[in-house]
Design brief:
About 70% of the residues lie in helices and about 0% in strands. By secondary structure, the chain is an all-alpha fold. α1 (about 10-25) packs antiparallel against α2 (about 30-50), α5 runs antiparallel to α6 and α7 packs across α10.
């Protein structure tokens, strides 16, 4: 950075590294994770100043804003990302993220729309199923909630991922539970999973 402080690529790398440490096994508590995410935001903004249509970077910026408490402002950013690159290999991830944002805003129909698209695009990924289980649970659609919960459990088993499967594990390991999001995490995600039938312990 000292050699080429205005190089957008270096700012992108720095932003990605800051994001990566929040999702890896580095023992950061929630406050430290959010601080790193907040530090990534200006790095991505520098990249976007050079290329406003960099869809992947815009997606990361939107997600960082969501993790640090952004709500309605995140939705148009994610929608722009999808418009900019509708055939991108990461489209399923962007659809998932948009669905999660809607879920955390209590907009269940919109959440289900985008989460269903993410699930169709990448059916082996567990997170669309998990979030759909919560959304359908909140809507009172027990059959669909139960089916999505079973799909999520199976997808996590296939990945040998033991960080999911009970409410206690979800609370312990969820990346979507930052201080800014905690109340909505409990109100929408945890309550929805509980209604879908995820056991407490």
């Amino acid at each position: 950075m000292a050699v080429a402080p205005r190089n957008p690529f270096l700012h992108y790398v720095k932003g990605q590294l800051l994001r990566a440490v929040t999702e890896g096994p580095f023992g950061l508590d929630a406050a430290a994770r959010v601080a790193r995410i907040a530090d990534a935001i200006p790095e991505f903004e520098i990249v976007l100043a050079a290329n406003p249509n960099a869809a992947g970077v815009l997606s990361h910026l939107a997600w960082c804003k969501f993790d640090t408490g952004g709500g309605d402002e995140v939705i148009p950013l994610m929608e722009k990302v999808i418009r900019l690159s509708p055939r991108d290999p990461s489209l399923y991830l962007w659809q998932l993220r948009l669905g999660v944002v809607h879920l955390y805003r209590g907009r269940l129909d919109e959440a289900i729309l985008w989460l269903e698209r993410a699930r169709r695009a990448n059916p082996s990924l567990p997170w669309p199923h998990a979030n759909l289980a919560a959304a359908y649970g909140l809507k009172g659609d027990a059959d669909r909630a139960t089916a999505e919960l079973a799909e999520a459990n199976e997808a996590f088993r296939r990945r040998t991922d033991n960080r999911w499967g009970t409410i206690a594990l979800v609370r312990k390991n969820a990346f979507f539970d930052t201080p800014a999001l905690h109340e909505r995490f409990e109100e929408f995600y945890i309550t929805g999973l509980r209604k879908a039938g995820l056991p407490e312990e």
